[in-house]
Write a structure and sequence with these properties.
Layout lengths: L1 H11 L17 H11 L8 E4 L5 E3 L1 E4 L10 E4 L5 E9 L3 E10 L6 E7 L2 E8 L9 E9 L2 E9 L6 E9 L33 E11 L3 E2 L5 E2 L6 H15 L7 E11 L6 H10 L6 H7 L12 E9 L6 E4 L4 E8 L8 E2 L14 H12 L22 H11 L2
The structure holds calcium ion (CA) and zinc ion (ZN).
Zinc ion binds next to helix 6.
Length: about 400
C-alpha cells in the first residue's frame, strides 16, 4: 500500500510535456513551475476596495444619514449609543495577508471617540476617531490587520454614546507590486521585476549554476536483440568537453548568459533487487511514459547528490525508446542517455559526446544538454521558434526568461 502510494506521487510529479515538437523528449513538470512561481511572485496590489458604511451587511443602533455634506457613496452611517455597530460580512481578499483598513469619518464633537474593531469574530483593536472640527469635515484613520483568504467579516462597534459619522472603509493590500504587468517577476530590481523588457542582462558577466554531472558506472542494459549498452565510451574529459560546448550554445558575445559551472564525477549505480524489471521498464518506455524516470531514479545514489542550488545531470546508458534527455526541475535533475535510437528508432547507437559544432543540431548530446539546461531555467518549447528549445541555433529570444529562471531557482 505504501509502495503504491509512493508510485502515485512520483507519477504525479513527472508529467511529460506532451508536445509533438519535442526534440529530445523531456519532462517539464508543470506542478513545480506552478509552485515555484506562486511563491516567488509579489502579491499583486490593486486599488483599495471600498466598503461604504451605508452598504453594511448588518448593523445595530446606527442609521443612514445625508444631512452633512462631503460624504461619498449614497450617505454615511450615524452611530447611536454605545454598542452600536456596523458589520460587513463581504470583505473578500484574494490571499491571506496584512491589509490596511482605512476608515473615513467625521467627528464634530470635542473628544476622541473609540470603537472596537472585530475581525472574523475576534476583537483585534480599538480604533480612535479624533475630532475633525465639524460634522461635514471628514478625516481618515487607518489600521493594518491580517485578513484571511476569501470572505472576512469586519465589525466596528462604538465604545461611547456620543455620535460618530462613518462614511466608508477602504481595504487595501499592503504589498506593493513593483511591476504589475510583468508575468515573470522575481525580486524587485532583478531581471524581470522592475527591469524593462529588452534591457535585462545586456551587460555584466555571465551567471552560472553549479552543475554536477554524474557518470553512472557499473550499469548496463541489454536490448531485446542482445546489444549491451553501458557508459564505457563516456570519459570524464569528453563530458567536460560536451558540457563546455553546451555552454557555448548558450553564450552570445554581447549578451549576459546563464551557463553551467560543471563538475564531473563518476559513481556506481545502485543495484536494487528488482533491477532487471526496472531496466526492462526503461528500455520499453517511450517519451510519454513517465515510468522510466522512476525506474532510473532507483539506480542513483542519493548520498552523492549534495549541495543546494545545484543541478545534477545523470548520464545513463539508454533513456527509453525515442527519448534522449529529460529535465526535472522539482528534483534539480537532468537525465540523459549516452546511447540513443531517437534518429529513427531501431537499434540504439552510441552518442558521440564531443560532436560540435557540426552535429550540434540533430541528435547531439551537446544540444541535449543545452536544451535540458534551458528547461531547468524554466524555458519551454513554446518560448521560441528557432532557439535551443526547439531547434539548435539561437538563445537570444529566450535570454531574458532564462535569466529570470536563474534568479528564481538557482541564484
Ligand atoms: Ca458613504
Ligand atoms: Zn524539451
Amino acid at each position: 500500500m505504501k509502495h503504491a502510494r509512493l508510485i502515485a506521487v512520483l507519477f504525479g510529479s513527472f508529467a511529460l510535456c506532451g508536445s509533438l515538437s519535442c526534440e529530445t523528449g523531456d519532462s517539464l513538470e508543470s506542478d513545480s513551475f506552478a509552485d515555484g512561481s506562486a511563491s516567488a511572485r509579489a502579491t499583486a496590489a490593486g486599488p483599495p476596495v471600498v466598503y461604504q458604511a451605508e452598504s453594511y451587511t448588518s448593523q445595530s443602533g446606527c442609521q443612514v444619514s445625508r444631512s452633512s455634506s462631503g460624504y461619498t457613496g449614497s450617505g454615511y452611517m450615524s452611530y447611536g449609543s454605545s454598542g452600536a455597530y456596523l458589520k460587513w460580512s463581504n470583505v473578500n481578499v484574494a490571499s491571506a495577508a496584512t491589509y490596511q483598513l482605512t476608515f473615513r469619518y467625521a467627528n464634530g464633537g470635542s473628544s476622541t471617540r473609540q470603537a472596537t474593531l472585530r475581525i472574523n469574530g475576534v476583537d483585534v483593536a480599538t480604533v480612535s476617531f479624533a475630532p475633525t472640527g465639524g460634522w461635514s469635515k471628514w478625516a481618515t484613520t487607518a489600521i493594518s490587520k491580517p485578513l484571511e483568504s476569501g470572505a472576512n467579516t469586519i465589525r466596528l462597534s462604538s465604545n461611547t454614546s456620543s455620535s460618530l459619522s462613518l462614511d466608508k472603509m477602504d481595504v487595501a493590500s499592503l504589498s506593493q507590486d513593483a511591476c504589475p504587468n510583468d508575468p515573470n517577476k522575481t525580486q524587485p530590481g532583478e531581471c524581470g521585476c522592475g527591469v524593462p523588457e529588452g534591457t535585462c542582462g545586456v551587460s555584466g558577466g555571465d551567471e552560472s549554476v553549479r552543475t554536477v554531472v554524474h557518470i553512472l558506472r557499473r550499469f548496463s542494459q541489454t536490448t531485446p536483440s542482445g546489444l549491451v549498452m553501458n557508459n564505457d565510451h563516456v570519459t570524464v574529459s569528453n563530458v567536460y568537453s560536451a558540457l563546455g560546448n553546451a555552454n557555448v550554445l548558450w553564450k552570445r558575445p554581447t549578451q549576459k548568459s546563464v551557463v553551467m559551472n560543471v563538475t564531473v564525477v563518476e559513481e556506481d549505480a545502485l543495484n536494487p533487487s528488482n533491477a532487471q524489471e526496472l531496466k526492462n521498464t526503461i528500455w520499453a518506455s517511450d517519451r510519454d511514459n513517465s515510468q522510466s524516470h522512476i525506474a532510473y531514479w532507483n539506480f542513483f545514489d542519493p548520498s552523492k547528490r549534495t549541495g543546494t542550488k545545484t543541478i545534477h545531470i545523470y548520464i545513463v546508458p539508454f533513456y527509453g525508446q525515442t527519448i534522449q534527455g529529460v529535465a526535472m526541475l522539482s528534483r534539480s535533475a537532468i537525465i540523459a542517455g549516452s546511447w540513443s535510437n531517437k534518429a529513427g528508432g531501431g537499434t540504439p547507437t552510441k552518442r558521440n559526446l564531443t560532436e560540435f559544432p557540426s552535429d550540434a543540431c540533430a541528435q547531439s548530446f551537446v544540444r541535449t544538454m543545452a536544451h535540458e539546461f534551458g528547461h531547468m531555467l524554466t524555458l519551454q518549447h513554446e518560448d521560441c521558434t528557432s532557439c535551443i528549445m526547439k531547434g539548435c541555433t539561437d538563445v537570444s529570444p529566450v535570454r531574458e526568461k532564462a535569466l529570470r529562471g536563474w534568479a528564481q531557482y538557482w541564484k
